[in-house]
């Protein structure tokens, strides 16, 4: 039977997950709760925390806030200032290879490399999302009317991917062959990077705000419908012409967060009413992990072994769901 | 696009301040922030201006107009506001209301539409009112020079005619008449240095269907009744007769109401009336009108009587966005009258009037 260990968080849970064995919960009120053996709260930001992203090597949590600062907080309780843009609200961050951190505010994105060098990338219109490619210092910036691929370490010419409309959150497929964006409209857009082929994934009743790649990048699980929608990416043409899987269908509730299991073809699915289900791709078998609560599930994150799942809601409910017997 | 309103209790109220540079927006904003009312505000500004704003939660937000991929040219939203409101919702406990201060040249429509078209914003925030601050000394020139100034007046629910101490009584009367000619339905106040009871600016519920109580011009106007029209005043907008002899309700002797009407591109208001309407005719009609003429319709409001329906139906809209709902039973002593008002540019009054009449039950 799954177990639930609640964790006290004082506000909207912006991000929850694991740094090695340590669970973290980043609150919109500014606190970062670390839970391993006992709990401790770090408060690096002066006020609100807007975004949080684990470092690639899993040793630290990168956070940004409305104080214009970006901090790198370790499981040892240390918080180091990475960068600062006074008076800007930094609401987008991405962590890259070799300690690189990308962040953005308004129309500008920056990359700070581990050696302290910074590069600035200016766009004509608002930046909607950031993602590093799985390999190399390549940064994707989703923006109004498309996305731009920048080389963060060198001065190579950027690649422009154009598609009309506002592109928000973005993600590379784990094999680096595709870039996917969530749009202001209720749709996903994708590009096959080899040839710039557009892919349109539509039919959502709500905006897609959470996406997660399954083991080996075979599926992209997404929120925004009354089931988790999983687009197949295993074939040569990605999801084009294929029907997505629908997991955890509920008649009266939308999926608000998804997280694919790190080892098996299983996804954790969080809903607007706070419920969390675990669903198997193969046969749609479901296990209830958490009953409905006070607010929409805002974040889900597995540990590396896939035996514990950290969750958080917009109403400040949070905890660790354990699958081990 | 008809839909019921969300539960207002869980939505954070949003007040939008518009007005030309120098009209006094920031002065009004600082008055709101410093009055001892126990409210905590999150303030969204377009740029940090010369005048400081003393507030803990202050966000700078660069105007980002997002066009929607739905083929509708007036369906624009402010992407930066969507983002800022979503970020604010991560600190929901830190404030009670939001004030958006727009730039002097901002189009108010995308700002307002953001609160109706984006589902996430709509779930967490509701537009309370658009408040326009106009400078009594300069507004007439601004209205001549720019469409933005006209749009701001046309779009407003509350208009503060500021710096009244800098003009003569006659100049002020001209300003008010001109503002009224564009927007007879806004609540109009006069002020010096934005000195006004803040309660007249905040918590207006101007987009709240439950609070559409009356569509009489100048409804609930405080302070000066000198040039009010009676409730039956249906300014005939194609009437070029500036005299009073056939306007028995216009006995205030103010001839400036029709100023500027010969300019076909200026903003006008239109008031339509009828008795009971046939809903099967009305809904397709209003959808068609807002689809076709949406870009020209700035604001629309109505209280409607449908045949066989004991309840008042209230409706309001911005460009192509329309929302309507049943409000309450018609009272026994209340005449079942349908009223629909449009404020817009290049609207064909005759066509609207005749096609509306075809919806009569």
Automatic annotation (TrEMBL), chain A:
SUPFAM superfamilies: Quinoprotein alcohol dehydrogenase-like. It comes from the Bacteria. SMART domains: WD40. This is WD-40 repeat-containing protein. It comes from Roseibium marinum.
From TrEMBL, chain B:
It catalyses: GTP + H2O = GDP + phosphate + H(+). It comes from the Bacteria. InterPro entries: CobW-likC_sf, CobW-like_C, CobW/HypB/UreG_nucleotide-bd, P-loop_NTPase, Zinc-reg_GTPase_activator. The keyword Lipid biosynthesis does not apply. One of its GO terms (molecular function) is hydrolase activity. Residues 239-267 are annotated as: Disordered. Pfam families: cobW (PF02492), CobW_C (PF07683). Residues 247-259 have a biased composition (Basic residues). Coiled coil: none annotated. Keywords: Chaperone, Hydrolase, Nucleotide-binding. Residues 267-360 form the CobW C-terminal domain. Belongs to the SIMIBI class G3E GTPase family. ZNG1 subfamily. Zinc chaperone that directly transfers zinc cofactor to target proteins, thereby activating them. Zinc is transferred from the CXCC motif in the GTPase domain to the zinc binding site in target proteins in a process requiring GTP hydrolysis. This is G3E family GTPase. It comes from Roseibium marinum.
């Amino acid at each position: 039977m799954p177990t639930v260990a609640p964790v006290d968080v004082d506000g909207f849970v912006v991000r929850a997950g694991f740094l090695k064995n340590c669970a973290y919960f980043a609150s919109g009120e500014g606190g970062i709760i670390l839970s391993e053996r006992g709990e401790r709260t770090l408060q690096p930001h002066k006020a609100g925390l807007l975004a949080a992203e684990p470092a690639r090597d899993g040793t630290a949590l990168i956070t940004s806030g409305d104080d214009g600062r970006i901090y790198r907080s370790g499981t040892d309780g240390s918080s180091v200032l990475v960068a600062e843009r006074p008076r800007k609200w930094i609401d987008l961050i991405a962590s890259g290879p070799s300690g690189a951190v990308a962040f953005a505010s308004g129309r500008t994105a920056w990359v700070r490399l581990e050696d302290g060098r910074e590069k600035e990338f200016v766009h004509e219109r608002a930046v909607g999302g950031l993602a590093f490619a799985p390999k190399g210092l390549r940064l994707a910036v989703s923006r109004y009317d498309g996305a731009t691929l920048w080389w963060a370490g060198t001065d190579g010419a950027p690649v422009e991917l154009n598609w009309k409309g506002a592109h928000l959150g973005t993600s590379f497929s784990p094999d680096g062959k595709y870039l996917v964006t969530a749009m202001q409209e209720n749709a996903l857009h994708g590009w096959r990077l080899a040839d710039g082929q557009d892919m349109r994934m539509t039919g959502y009743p709500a905006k897609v705000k959470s996406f997660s790649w399954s083991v080996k990048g075979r599926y992209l699980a997404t929120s925004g419908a009354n089931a988790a929608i999983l687009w197949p990416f295993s074939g040569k043409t990605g999801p084009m012409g294929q029907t997505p899987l629908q997991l955890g269908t509920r008649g009266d509730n939308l999926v608000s967060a998804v997280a694919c299991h790190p080892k098996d073809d299983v996804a954790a699915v969080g809903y607007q009413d706070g419920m969390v289900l675990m669903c198997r791709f193969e046969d749609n078998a479901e296990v209830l992990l958490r009953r409905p609560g006070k607010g929409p599930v805002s974040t889900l994150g597995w540990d590396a072994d896939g035996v514990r799942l950290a969750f958080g809601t917009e109403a400040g409910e949070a905890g660790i769901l354990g699958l081990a017997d | 696009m008809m839909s019921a309103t969300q539960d207002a209790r869980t939505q954070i109220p949003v007040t939008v301040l518009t007005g030309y540079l120098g009209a006094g927006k920031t002065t009004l904003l600082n008055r709101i922030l410093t009055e001892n009312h126990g409210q905590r505000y999150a303030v969204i500004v377009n740029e940090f201006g010369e005048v400081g704003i003393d507030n803990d939660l202050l966000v700078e937000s660069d105007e980002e107009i997002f066009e929607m991929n739905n083929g509708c040219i007036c369906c624009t939203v402010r992407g930066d506001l969507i983002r800022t409101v979503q970020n604010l919702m991560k600190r929901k406990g830190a404030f009670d209301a939001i004030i958006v201060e727009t730039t002097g040249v901002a189009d108010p429509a995308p700002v307002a539409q953001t609160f109706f078209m984006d589902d996430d914003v709509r779930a967490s925030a509701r537009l309370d009112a658009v408040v326009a601050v106009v400078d009594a000394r300069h507004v007439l020139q601004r209205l001549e020079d720019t469409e933005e100034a006209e749009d701001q007046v046309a779009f407003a629910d509350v208009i503060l005619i500021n710096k009244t101490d800098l003009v003569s009584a006659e100049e002020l009367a001209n300003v008010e008449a001109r503002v009224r000619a564009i927007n007879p339905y806004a609540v109009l106040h006069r002020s010096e240095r934005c000195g006004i009871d803040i309660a007249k600016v905040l918590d207006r519920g101007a987009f709240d269907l439950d609070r559409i109580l009356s569509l009489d011009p100048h409804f609930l106007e405080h302070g000066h009744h000198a040039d009010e029209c009676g409730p039956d005043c249906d300014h005939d907008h194609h009437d070029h007769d500036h005299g009073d002899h056939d306007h028995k309700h216009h006995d205030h002797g103010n001839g400036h109401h029709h100023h500027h009407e010969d300019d076909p591109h200026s903003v006008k208001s239109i008031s339509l009336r009828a008795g009971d309407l046939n809903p099967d005719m009305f809904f397709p009609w209003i959808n068609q009108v807002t689809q076709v003429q949406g870009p020209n319709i700035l604001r629309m409001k109505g209280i409607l009587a449908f045949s066989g329906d004991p309840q008042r139906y209230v409706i309001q809209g911005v460009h192509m966005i329309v929302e309507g709902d049943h409000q309450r039973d018609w009272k026994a002593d209340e005449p079942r009258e349908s009223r629909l008002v449009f404020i817009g540019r290049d609207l064909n009054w005759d066509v609207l009037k005749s096609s509306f009449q075809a919806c009569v039950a």
